[in-house]
Amino acid sequence: MPRNKTLSFPVAYCLDSLKIEHISKVQNGKNCNCICLVCSEPLIAKNNVNNIKEAHFSHKPESDCETNVETYLHLVIKEILPELNKVNLPSDNVYISDFLNLEPISEIYKSQYLAKTLKEIEVYKESKEIEFTADEVRIEKTYKIDDDKIRPDIVICRNGVELFIEPHVTNKISYDKLNKIKKLDISCVAINLQLFLSEYGQLFTLEELKSFIISDLNSKSWVWLRNAKRKSTTQTIVNRINKKLKDYPNFVDWDKSKTLSLSSDKQKLENIDNEIENLKKKKLEIQRKFNETLSSFETKERELLAAIEDLLKYGRI
Fold this sequence. Notes:
Elements: E1 11-14, E2 19-22, E3 34-35, E4 44-46, E5 56-58, H1 69-84, E6 86-89, H2 105-108, H3 112-120, E7 130-133, E8 136-139, E9 143-145, E10 148-150, E11 154-158, E12 161-168, H4 175-184, E13 188-192, H5 193-200, H6 206-215, E14 220-224, H7 227-247, H8 251-313
Parallel strand pairs: 12-13
Antiparallel strand pairs: 1-2, 1-3, 4-5, 6-7, 8-11, 9-10, 11-12, 13-14
Helix pairs in contact: 1-6
């Protein structure tokens, strides 16, 4: 099979340093002593300053390696994450973005007007990003679920609490994998690497990738938030709402008066519509009677004219 000729490699595994190295850190040509992360074949470093193209690694012409950007980036991230030990996560409140529909909140605050008002005063936006500093990073650890199993891409551990990290370019987490994550009840964050490629392209540096994985929040989203954390987050939001309601005690009464006012206004509009319909009916009735009177008058007028013609005809006038 022909290899993928469209993929450029900015980094590779160096057998001299025994770690991922950028193209700028190794010798030119075959002396780079670097191998492909996917197929483990020797690579050629094309970083001569006289080259027209940007510096990159390439396979030998006879190579059959068929890697793609997603697989390649996955492997690079798995190599560099253990040395990062931390990652900034979006607030877990973001996962409860539809919290007004959840128990116990929906039972307490059903009013849409109140919900809108609470959003306007940013009740649930008072949260910051989370810095998850890891004690341990595990790559592709296998978990058993009944008679099945799951192997998340990356597992970050802190104080005995695990967090799954799932990077992706195009292939998002499957429905089957998501169900397994829910059964394990372990929080999971997805990282959209397409945003990284859109900004930096395929010939990125390790520093750019590391910075993106650690700090970029737009690319991260909660796939699952473990039950205990979800309950505590929901309770935090409930407490925040209660505090806001104490600060603004007239919210609920104002809401009721608004509702009553809107209901009264709606009734007034309905009454006006009914009056308009009655006036239309009266107009039709008056028009009908007028037409009948006019028709009767025209008939009598014709009869009178006929009588006058008869009198003139027989000389009686």
